[in-house]
Amino acid sequence: MKKLLLSVLTVFVALSCAFTAQAGAKKKADKQTQAFRYDIEYVKTAGTGIVAVKVASYSKKAGIALNQCAKNAVHGVIFKGYAGNGTSMAALCKDPGAETAHSDYFKAFFAEGGEYNKYVSSVDTANSEFLKAYKEYKVSQVVYVNKAALRKALESAGIIKGLAAGF
Question: Is the pTM of this model over 0.90?
Fold first, then answer.
């Protein structure tokens, strides 16, 4: 009976340590993601209101960087803008303080599995590029973002002004 109790206790301690380590790794990955370290470059227009951008995400783990490409693409279209192939587009949100002013909205918007996923049409995972430099990975992917639908959602949330608001 003592051996059984000791075995059950050992298994319980081992599982709790594993879950704690996994939660710690997830928390660290979320912190890296919140820093929004990425590069964004225009590739092409891929239909009405849809734009293809190449996003390079950085992280200590290649899988994390790969998973963050779509989130970073939407973030770039909203706050950073993009250029490439002789084209440049300004960010949808021209107010530099909008991200902090509407922090509750954007925290939920960019949460894991959040609303940002609605505006990613597709991700070209077949042509992903992985580059390891020093202690981190740079992962690049082409991501298709529905810019028109994203603009409408931000307008209805009151984050950006509509195109006709200046007239």
Answer: no
